[in-house]
Amino acid sequence: MMKKRNTVYLSEDLIVEILSRVSAVSLARLRTTSKRWNALVKDERLAKKHSAYAPRQSLVITLIDSRVYLMNVSLQYGIEKVDLSAKLTGQFSLKDPLSNSLEEVDIRNVFHCDGLLLCSTKDNRLVVWNPCSGETRWIQPRSSYKVSDIYALGYDNTSSCHKILRMDRSEDRIPIQTEYQVYDFTSKPWLVDGVAGGLFIPSIGTRRRGLSVKGNTYWLALTEDGPPFDMFLLCFDFSTDGFRRLSLPTDTPCTYYDVSLSVTREEQQLCMFKSHGSELWIATKMESTGAISWSKSHRFHFRIDEMTVLVDQEKPVFVYRFKPKSNMLHIVGEHIYIIQVDQHSADSKCPYLLTYVPSLVQIQQSI
Known about the structure:
The chain has 367 residues and is mainly beta. The chain has helices at 12-19, 24-30, 35-41, 44-53, and strands at 2-4, 7-9, 59-64, 67-77, 82-92, 107-113, 116-121, 126-129, 136-138, 150-155, 162-170, 177-184, 192-197, 199-200, 211-213, 216-223, 231-237, 242-246, 259-263, 270-274, 279-286, 292-299, 309-312, 317-321, 328-332, 336-340, 353-356. The strands form 7 sheets. Strands 14, 15, 16, 17 and 18 form a 5-stranded antiparallel sheet that branches. A 4-stranded antiparallel sheet has the order 5-4-3-27, with no helix packed on it.
């Protein structure tokens, strides 16, 4: 600590120690105040300490007009008083490196994992982005990206190395096959080539986007040319760079439209909601072998076509869209409430919601 006249200057190590206890979203606001603060937020020392000491937040983000927004969903849900609100609290700005101006990137889809966002753009580019630190890594394709591609971001649990999965459904081949590639952040890109036969991820709502749980990604999938109820849980394991087929928690026949996946707050547990019977199941145990133990958590007396984000597991309160591309949300507990998202434009819609756990995790750069 240095002192000059009546001014006290803290050492950088002490500043890092203090900031490691501050939330990532609050630190993100400091980046715009000066170059020094911007550099400090991106510092590896702060990233490591922040991961260990900072309070862990579980927030909600949404994509509106090709921009990513933070959404504050307030759930003051008591016996005598119900105070519910949903409003946009800020925008994450992603500048376009191909533009000479301050033009922002038009984002088509967003996938969240470990505090990082994997974004596909409307001009078919791919970028990994930490909105809190501002760090990005643009991913170059081996062959041109397609609108129909399916992407997922995860990490190897044995090395903490982040990876990207790209799936390309080849419908010009009989039988139809899904080719996939894996991009490794710490070695040569797009190392793994493979073909996943006999499975199909329909282009319905947000289900193609998949969900990240502890580094792996999960989808609801169908057996190719199988019966309409032959549905299973598809997992891509980023530690082995391979797919696994897992069982769903119920044997009750249901269609692809009747089932949705979600995650509890802070992405701790995978959830499945079955609208036929209105059952909420939670994966209580996930083995390294791929085996999953399920527990029926709650039963509701209403129908949900597509659950988007589970907000609270302990209270059974969760949020889902009133209808596709709407700015109306259902907030559900013992009763159903419909609220309108307070946002910047009445004409803008929320295509989907994502749980977002902000962090200062650094993006591995190529060697």
